[in-house]
Amino acid sequence: MNAGQLPAEQFPALSAQSGIVHGFTLRVAGIEVSQDKAEALARLDGVHRGIRTKHGLGGAPFITAQQIHGERIGVADETTTTDKCIDSSDGLITNQRGVCLGIYVADCCAVFLVDPVRQAIGLVHSGKKGTELGIVSNGIRSMSEHFGSRPADLVVQLSPCIRPPHYEIDFAAEIVRQCRDLGVTSVHDCDVCTACDLDRYYSYRAEKGRTGRMLAFLALR
Fold it and tell me: What pTM was estimated for this model as a whole?
């Protein structure tokens, strides 16, 4: 697979923001991922690195979250100079340029938070439990606390995720509601269900837990 064929998609609302690099990787043909999560991610790592490199992030510190379906937000600050996984976190925020935030999903939603005024970003892992705990709201409040971000200035984008009728609740709709309740007006949902298109996406529910992960990544250029 050459660099021009690396599978990732972008979202118009984020592409319209200057100084933002983002992407959402797709299912990778030819890589067997019917393993546990760690093995699946190890097999996908080379492709994911290639995609980040294609987007100019090959040398950027890659910051991920442990993703325990909780509500904690990790902060990548000026001391963040090497790859790091932030323990006990499900969301990441930064105002540092050249730092790449990454969240892995396979039915849960990756929520992109962009503040074009304060030049700050966030990336949040929000599935059923995280949405119930208000993880995205925590991410927005954390950006306000650390960077002075105002909800009215934010651009929020929801990634593909599982939705009814393939899942019993519509947590994407709840994420949108929580954002609007905090005063975010620019909320964008792609309205795509991961379980509906297994040629394009991985789905934990549809594939009974033996599957790969899409990588959502976000950086300030």
Answer: 0.96
Walking along the chain (221 residues) 10 residues at a time, the average pLDDT comes out as 64 97 96 92 95 95 97 95 96 97 98 98 98 98 98 98 97 98 98 97 95 97 92
The DSSP 8-state label assigned to residue 163 in this structure reads: -
Domains of the chain: 3-220 (3.60.140.10)
Strand partners, 94: 76, 121
Read off the tokens for 164: 């009814």
CA diameter of the chain: 45
Strand order, beta sheet including 73-76: 73-76, 91-94, 120-126, 109-115, 155-158, 186-189
Asked whether 95 and 78 are in contact (CB, 8 A), the reply is no
Cα separation, 179 vs 30, in Å, equals 38
- Mark out the alpha helices in the chain (DSSP H runs): 12-15, 37-54, 128-133, 135-147, 171-181
